[in-house]
Write a structure and sequence with these properties.
Chain B: InterPro entries: PTS_EIIB-like_sf, PTS_EIIB_2, PTS_EIIB_2/3. The complex is a heterodimer of chains A (460) and B (91). Chain A has 460 residues and is mainly α. Helix content of chain A is 69%, strand content 4%. In chain A, the strands form two sheets. Chain A has a three-stranded parallel β-sheet. Chain A has a three-stranded parallel β-sheet with strand order 2-4-3. In chain A, helix 7 packs parallel to helix 16 and helix 8 packs across helix 16. Classes of the chains: A mainly alpha (460), B alpha/beta (91).
């Protein structure tokens, strides 16, 4: 026993860039990948960690000094740097128990299908990392591993329920049949729904604005390098840098935002064969039953309302970050807030005006939750050694997905320390979820009469 | 070599997933092609130097290249037909 424990400790001490690939080879061989392919995937995974550490380090080194200058000049304390989602996924995969989340998601899905508790088959195994991330946040807050798995399991169940109840609305928006979105970010729908219901009382908000034209005009700002440059220049200006330094920071920021997805793609490249063979297996198992296939959000990316809303929110997010008392996060890598736009798109059924209002009102939730988790995320980076964060710096994610769920349920896990408030609030949130579910079910019934017979679209 | 691009919202996850799968399928059929995952926000730049665009969304406008759907590669429904379309365009 002692020998085994020492052996495990020895492997863990090698660090995530070594031990995660080792796990990957073992898992790959279990799902019958060829040794050569498994090794290649595993090595890619390892170098993705190294690459992400380099890019985050570069971002922190260029943005942090400017942020500190800004703090000094303005007295506004924004000491947590926003890395966006890609460094967070890196931290998630670095958790030694991360791969256990695959069987958790798959078994829950198969069980719920067998018991007819869902009609959705989630084949998006990439976003298993979202559940892993929830789990590591819970551990960061309360230190309880079983509760971390339990809360991640609840997230899996709720994502599938969301997939079921949102399918008709999503079909109406995308005109793609048979698929739905099982991404965890949709749990924020629960928070947006009551506000959207309030907007029902104001006739002005039923007005439809055509987003296509605006997308044509504004689209360039959403490109990573352009957005990075603008934010970099803004941060440099507020830091009262001299003009040359402002421009240098602009190009550095553009480099960071362009390099993040390039490096993050390596994680997907490594995990694709694995997730492909698992999802093939699941699809084969249920090939005789008509199911909604649960996917990641990008099949909705054709809805121009998303992009227009997100671009309009950028200056508003920066403004909120500066004026909100107690906010510590300087939005950067996560400034394009998909975690808000996708839920807002679904809840409002693609009403741009409402989406913008919902975003303006609820951006503070993201910033506060990002502030709350900044120490947790920073400690995670330090403990796992996959991302170097220097003393005095903090790393977080300004547009953290499902902030409502993650905050409340992480707090609920503090029950192990005798704190009840979090649990009470989490149960209240589940009540809101139930209300949302009933309301969307009604909407789905109405839509399904409307959508019947629209089979001339994409043959899916 | 002909080039296929697959676009999704970040150029990271879904597009990479579809492009890995497509790369494998084309390789098995012995069809040489470069398959790249790109960011849909920069689509207008990438579309200029590719032969096939595999879209994860329902395309809202005409493109100068063959446009195929990436959804069948995610759901498995209608995948062979869509693959055939891509292969024809690459010939």
């Amino acid at each position: 026993m002692e020998v085994l424990k020492n052996a495990i400790q020895f492997v863990l001490d090698l660090g995530a860039p070594v031990f995660v690939p080792l796990i990957m080879i073992i898992v790959g061989l279990i799902v019958r990948m060829k040794l050569r392919d498994a090794f290649s995937s595993a090595l890619t995974l390892g170098l993705a960690f190294i690459g992400m550490n380099m890019v985050v380090g570069f971002m922190m080194d260029s943005i942090s000094p400017a942020a500190q200058e800004f703090v000094k000049n303005s007295g506004i304390n924004l000491n947590a740097i926003d890395g966006g989602w890609t460094p967070m996924s890196t931290l998630a995969w670095a958790w030694p128990l991360a791969f256990l989340m695959f069987p958790v998601q798959i078994l829950i899905n198969l069980l719920m299908l067998a018991l007819k508790q869902t009609n959705t088959l989630n084949v998006d195994l990439w976003n298993v990392w979202g559940k892993i991330f929830t789990a590591v946040l819970v551990i960061g807050v309360s230190g309880n591993i079983p509760l971390a798995f339990l809360i991640a399991a609840i997230q899996v169940v709720l994502e599938l329920k969301m997939g079921d109840v949102n399918q008709k609305q999503i079909q109406k928006l995308t005109q793609i049949r048979g698929v739905t979105c099982t991404h965890g970010m949709t749990l924020f729908n629960v928070f947006l729904y009551p506000i959207n219901r309030l907007l029902d009382y104001i006739p002005f908000f039923n007005k439809h604005i055509d987003a296509n034209w605006l997308k044509q005009k504004l689209g360039i700002f959403a490109e990573n390098h352009v957005m990075g440059f603008i934010i970099g220049v803004l941060i440099g200006t507020f830091a009262q840098y001299p003009p040359q330094k402002i421009l240098i920071l602009g190009v550095q920021a553009a480099a960071a935002l362009t390099l993040f997805p390039m490096v993050a793609r390596l994680f997907m490249e490594a995990l694709a064969p694995l997730s492909d063979s698992i999802s093939d297996y699941m699809k084969r198992k249920y090939s005789d039953r008509q199911l909604y296939i649960g996917l990641d959000w990008p099949f909705m990316a054709g809805c121009n309302e998303l992009w227009v809303a997100m671009i309009i929110w950028v200056p508003i997010t920066l403004l909120w970050a500066v004026i909100l008392p107690g906010n510590n996060i300087l939005p950067f890598g996560g400034i394009i807030n998909l975690s808000l736009a996708v839920p807002a798109l679904i809840v409002t059924g693609g009403n741009l005006l409402r989406m913008i209002v919902l975003g303006v009102l609820t951006t503070p939730v993201f910033l506060y939750v990002a502030t709350f988790f900044a120490p947790t995320i920073t400690n995670l980076a330090k403990d796992t050694h996959v991302i170097n964060v220097k003393d005095g710096q903090f790393l977080s994610w300004s547009s953290i997905e499902l902030p409502d769920f993650r905050y409340l349920f992480a707090q609920a896990s503090n029950i192990v320390h005798g704190e009840f408030l979090g649990l009470v609030l989490a149960i209240g949130w589940l009540g809101l979820f139930y209300w949302y579910y009933k309301g969307m079910q009604k909407r789905a019934d109405q839509l399904s009469t409307e959508l019947d017979g629209t089979s001339h679209h994409m043959s899916v | 070599m002909k080039r296929v691009i697959v676009a999704c919202g970040s150029g990271v996850a879904t597009s990479q997933m579809v492009s890995s799968k497509l790369k494998n399928l084309l390789q098995k059929r012995g069809i040489p092609a470069q398959v790249d995952a790109v960011d849909i926000k920069s689509l207008d730049r990438h579309i200029k130097n590719c032969d096939v665009y595999v879209s994860i969304t329902k395309p809202d406008k005409e493109y100068p290249v063959t446009v195929c759907s990436g959804i069948p590669f995610l759901t498995g429904v209608g995948m062979d037909a869509e693959l055939e379309k891509i292969i024809q365009a690459l010939k």
